[in-house]
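Structure ticket #2291
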Amino acid sequence: MTQSTTRAQQQEGGPGGPDFKASKSTRYGLDMAFTMLVAGAALVGVVALVVLLVDVIRDGSTMLSLEFLTSFPSQIFPENGGIYPALIGSLWLLGLTALISVPLGLGAAVYLEEYAEDTRINRIIEVNISNLAGVPSVIYGLLGLGIFVELLAPVTGGTSVLTGALTLSLLILPVIIVATREALRAIPGSIREGGYALGATRWEVIWSHLLPMALPGALTGIILALSRAIGEAAPILVVGVSLYQTYVTSGPFDGYMALPTQIYDWISRPQQIFQDSAAAGIVVAMAVLLLANSFAIWLRNRYQQRS
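Resolution: structure written out below.
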């Protein structure tokens, strides 16, 4: 009788039970305080972002025009200069980086999650991939300089847009691999077992069931990775991006300019006209990023509906 009473008291939060606030007003007060705390934290971030956006758009509104988007930059007549070669160069970088990194990242994630055995070498590889996601971007630039610019110059064209895309692909591959592996890991094992029970091979199960179900989660990582890549300046500065050129990038082996480095060049100059041009360039970069992310989010939602 005594044991039953003690057990009931513990379940109800009585003497000897878990730490439970019996006062309803105290519990609701703590809930309200936590709600206000997290709402205030979110509000600080949103307000800071809005202030920055308004300030950048206000400064760059005087330069934003169709002429700005279709003109070459000019140091002699900066009021007539534009961002056209940097915009085209960034689009080349974004497209080539996606073409290189997405198939490699998905393939590596599928191998590590579905094919690789639990050996010491594979565990070391997994740990290194997770650690590489936190390596400073300039280190990838130095790696790209040594491999793609010098060692593989006959293949990559030296300081070409292909070299920049390869370097940025190295930068974002760990993020894509980790995100895709987590998406594959979240799929119930019964999906795999059901496919095998019906006579499907491992590749058929992966291609027909696992990849379509994991793709929405993988696309989230791809969106974040490509967003980081298009805004990076340090690695492409190391591998030889042009700060000025008189032609537009028309192939993977051509030289290139990029939006981040063009903005950096403008903002480092003291004249107000260059500061306004840099603000307009930031607006253009955000617009490109928003359009790319919108397409990726639409693609992710489409696959979520299918799965």
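Closing remark: The first helix runs from residue 2 to 11.
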